[in-house]
Every structure is written in C-alpha cells, then in structure tokens.
Design a protein that fits this description.
single chain, mainly alpha, two-stranded antiparallel ribbon
Length: 168
C-alpha cells in the first residue's frame, strides 16, 4: 500500500509526537505536511479504506480488472480512443501530456483527449451545468462592460449598489 511519501525522519517524528500526545493538526503544522499525511501514517487502515474509493478502484470494479501492476497498465489504456497528438478542444499540438476526459467509468471509449488547460475548463463545465455557466458568463460580461466603461468612458466610478444590480 502506497501512503503519502515523506522522509523516514518525518515518519519517525510523526510517531514520536503522537506518542507524546500532540494533535494531528499540530504535528502537521510543525512538520510542514498535510493533516491527511499525518493521519495516513498514524492510521494505515483508514488510508486503505479511502484508497478503495479512488477512481482506479472503481474502474477496476466496474470493468472487472485485477489489481496487479500489469492490470493497472492495461487499465490505463483500456478502451480509450487513439491518441491524436493534439488537444481536441483547442487543437494545440502536443506529442505527450494530453489528459483523457471521459464521462462514464464503465465505458472509457466515450471520451476526448485534451490539454490540462482545457481539461480544467471541461471539468468546470461538467460540474456547473450549462444553465449555471450561462448565468456566470452573463454576470461576468456585464461586470466587464461596467468596469471598462467606468475606467475608459467616464471618470465617475460605480458605487457598490450599481455593481450588485448589474450582477443580478
């Protein structure tokens, strides 16, 4: 089981500080690591439970693939569309480093190859939904026009009431 990687010295320090009664939060602050890292080292069983919830575990379960290294490598490319060599959204050429974005873990063949920048955008679009995204875009464009007009059109700045009205 691969826990979060930290030095052996820090791992020993976590154990010793825990024995001395330090809280997880305090240990994390002192050692400069996350609380989750400290927790994982103190409670490896909890880490194993959380690990089972990861995307790869779910894909293995849905697709019926084993847990060996070879199975993981096979899983990585299973059913994906061919690598195009360019982001399918912005068309920027990339020899490697494209992300594969798909919508259904049980059918990875339904997906697209995209660059990291477009992947963040696509995840945002998927998570927000088109109606909410349209509202945010309209608000942004109104604010942009108001601020641009204020700075370039007249010297009178907008008060907070007019900004909140234009955002609604």
């Amino acid at each position: 089981m691969n826990r979060r990687k930290i030095s052996e010295t820090k791992a020993l320090a976590i154990q010793r500080m825990n024995e001395l009664g330090f809280r997880v939060v305090d240990i994390a602050k002192i050692l400069g690591v996350s609380r989750l890292t400290v927790h994982d080292h103190l409670h490896p069983d909890c880490y194993a439970v959380r690990l089972k919830r990861t995307r790869d575990y779910n894909r293995r379960t849905v697709l019926g693939i084993g847990t060996t290294r070879e199975d993981s490598i096979a899983l990585k490319h299973l059913g994906k569309r061919p690598y195009p060599g360019a982001c399918e959204v912005c068309r920027k050429a990339k020899e490697k480093g494209l992300h594969y974005h798909h919508w259904d873990d049980s059918n990875p063949s339904i997906g697209i190859w995209i660059c990291a920048r477009c992947h963040r955008l696509v995840e945002l679009l998927d998570n927000l939904g088109s109606k909410r995204l349209a509202e945010l875009l309209a608000t942004y464009l109104q604010l942009k026009a108001s601020v641009t007009e204020t700075v370039h059109g007249s010297t009178k700045p907008l008060d907070s009431k007019s900004v909140s009205k234009s955002a609604s």
